[in-house]
Write a structure and sequence with these properties.
Length: 458
C-alpha cells in the first residue's frame, strides 16, 4: 500500500477540487486514504482491490451489523417502495411511530418519548434545546440557559452540540462558539494527576462538577451533558460510582442529566446502553450510529415522561427526522440484535478481545489496555514510568502497519481502538487482533527510533 495508490489519488484530487474532506486537508495528504467500493460481512473492499477485516465497524463505529446484511437491505427497500417519506409536523410515517414505541420499551428508566433527527449532532442539539425548554416550561428555572460539559468530550458538529464539545481539533475552528457552555474535567483512565487513583480522580471530577454548578448559579444551569463512556483517548471507562454521583448532583441542583449514547448505544459496550452498566437513569438520552447500524442516517433524542408532559410543544423541524427508511432500518436492527443475542455476544467477545491482547501491557510502548464489550483501546506511552504521551507518528505507523497486514483499526488521541461489528466471528476477531498485535510488537522493537513526545502525566 503506497500513498500513490488509486484511493490516494482519487481522494487527494477530489479534496483539492470537489469534496471537503472531514477533518483536515493536511491529514488527507499525510495519511493514506481508504476509498471503499464494497463490503460483505466484516470485510471491506477498496477501489484498489484491497480487502480488509474491518475492526472498526467503519471508522465512525456505526456498522454494528457489518456489511451487506440482506435483511436490513430488504427491509429498507421494501419500506421505500411502500412509503419512502412521511413529511414533517402533522405528517408522520406509521413506522416512525412504531419505532418510537419500541424505543420506549427498551430505554432505561423513565425515558419514554423520542424526537427523531438525522444524526448524533442533531440529537444532542435537540437534547440541549429540550432541556432549556423544560426548565422554562416547568417553571422552576425560567432563566436557565447554561450547560456544563466535560473536558475532551465530543457531542457533534452542530452549534450547541459543538458548544458542548471539547475536542480541540474541531472546536478551535468554530470558536468563539456559543455562549452558556463551560466544561469540567472528566474521569480518565491511565492518565490522571500524580498521587491519586482512578477512583479518587473520578471523585474529584464529580466534586468539581458540583462546584461548577454552584459557581455558575444552579438557577441558571439547565443541564449536564456526558458520554457515559467517553471516546477521547480511547474508551474512558469511569470508575464505579462516578455516574451515580453525577446523577445525584444533578438531582440536588435541579439540573437535567443528558447521556450522549450516540456511539455507545445498542450493544457496543456489552449492555444495550452504556449507562446500564451502572444502572443510572438519565433525563435525556441521545442515540445514533448503531441505531440503524449505518444502513440509513438517524438520530434520536429520548426524554422522560416528566419532560414530555411539561414541555407543551417543541417547534423544531428536521425534514428528514424519523425518515421511514431509517425507522424500518432501526426496527430491523433491534430485531436482529434481539434474535442473535448480540448484546451478550458483544460482552463475551469483548472479554475474548482483552484476552487476545493480554501480555501486550508488558511492552514498553503500551500503557494500558481497557475495554467494555466490543469496544477496546490500547493506550500508548513513550515512558511507562511517567506515563508520558506517546509519539503520534508511532500510533500512525501502527494503524498503517495493521492496515498493511489486512485489518482496520483507528487512532484516537493517545490510544488505538478496535470496535468491530457485533456480528464478527471469534475466528475473525482472532485473525484481526493477531494483525494488530503484530504491528504493536514490531513498533515496540523499533521504539528507540521514536523520540519521547514529552508531556507529563495530565
Ligand atoms: N456524540 C458522540 C459521542 C459521537 O461519537 C458523535 C460522533 O462521532 C457525535 C455525538 C456526533 O454524531 P454525528 O456524527 O452523527 O453527528
Amino acid at each position: 500500500m503506497t500513498a500513490n495508490n488509486k484511493s490516494s489519488l482519487l481522494y487527494k484530487d477530489a479534496s483539492r477540487h470537489y469534496i471537503w474532506p472531514q477533518l483536515s486537508k493536511e491529514e488527507i495528504v499525510r495519511g493514506v486514504p481508504v476509498i471503499l467500493s464494497g463490503g460483505e460481512g466484516v470485510r471491506v473492499r477498496t477501489v484498489d482491490g484491497d480487502e480488509y477485516l474491518d475492526l472498526m465497524s467503519t471508522t465512525a463505529r456505526a456498522s454494528t451489523l457489518g456489511y451487506g446484511n440482506e435483511r436490513m437491505v430488504d427491509a429498507v427497500t421494501s419500506q421505500l417502495r411502500t412509503l419512502h417519506y412521511g413529511g414533517t409536523a402533522n405528517f408522520q410515517a406509521d413506522v416512525t411511530i412504531e419505532l418510537a414505541k419500541r424505543l420506549a420499551g427498551l430505554a432505561p428508566g423513565e425515558l419514554s418519548a423520542t424526537y427523531f433527527v438525522g444524526s448524533g449532532s442533531e440529537a444532542n442539539e435537540a437534547a440541549i434545546k429540550l432541556a432549556h425548554l423544560y426548565q422554562r416550561s416547568a417553571g422552576a428555572k425560567p432563566r436557565a440557559y447554561k450547560v456544563i460539559a466535560r473536558w475532551n468530550a465530543y457531542h457533534g458538529s452542530a452549534g450547541g452540540a459543538m458548544g458542548a464539545s471539547d475536542w480541540l481539533g474541531v472546536r478551535h475552528p468554530s470558536e468563539p462558539g456559543y455562549p452558556g457552555y463551560s466544561r469540567v474535567p472528566a474521569p480518565t483512565c491511565y492518565r490522571f494527576p500524580i498521587g491519586s487513583t482512578e477512583a479518587e480522580y473520578a471523585d474529584i471530577c464529580a466534586d468539581m462538577l458540583e462546584q461548577q454548578i454552584i459557581h455558575e448559579g444552579p438557577e441558571l444551569v439547565s443541564a449536564v451533558i456526558a458520554e457515559p463512556i467517553m471516546q477521547a483517548n480511547g474508551v474512558q471507562i469511569p470508575a464505579d460510582g462516578y455516574l451515580q454521583r453525577v446523577r445525584e448532583i444533578c438531582d440536588r441542583h435541579g439540573v437535567l442529566m443528558i447521556a450522549d449514547e450516540v456511539i455507545s448505544c445498542f450493544g457496543r459496550t456489552g449492555e444495550l446502553f452504556a449507562l446500564n452498566h451502572w444502572r443510572v437513569e438519565p433525563d435525556i438520552m441521545t442515540m445514533s450510529k448503531a441505531l440503524t447500524a449505518g444502513y440509513m442516517p438517524l438520530g434520536a433524542t429520548m426524554v422522560t415522561s416528566r419532560i414530555h408532559e411539561a414541555v407543551d410543544g417543541f417547534p423544531d423541524i428536521h425534514t428528514y427526522g424519523g425518515h421511514p427508511g431509517s425507522a424500518v432500518a432501526s426496527m430491523t436492527m433491534i430485531d436482529i440484535v434481539e434474535e442473535e443475542d448480540l448484546v451478550a455476544r458483544s460482552a463475551s467477545l469483548g472479554r475474548t478481545a482483552l484476552r487476545l491482547l493480554s501480555g501486550c501491557e508488558e511492552l514498553e510502548i503500551v500503557g494500558q489496555i481497557r475495554g467494555r464489550g466490543l469496544w477496546v483501546a490500547v493506550d500508548f506511552t513513550s515512558d511507562p514510568q511517567s506515563r508520558a504521551l506517546p509519539e503520534p507518528t508511532m500510533l500512525e505507523n501502527i494503524v498503517q502497519r495493521t492496515r498493511d497486514l489486512g485489518a482496520l483499526v483507528s487512532q484516537n488521541g493517545t490510544a488505538i481502538e478496535i470496535a468491530p461489528p457485533l456480528v464478527i466471528t471469534e475466528a475473525d476477531l482472532e485473525t484481526g487482533i493477531a494483525m494488530f498485535r503484530q504491528a504493536i510488537e514490531e513498533a515496540n522493537k523499533q521504539r528507540a527510533s521514536y523520540p519521547a513526545a514529552g508531556g507529563a502525566v495530565e
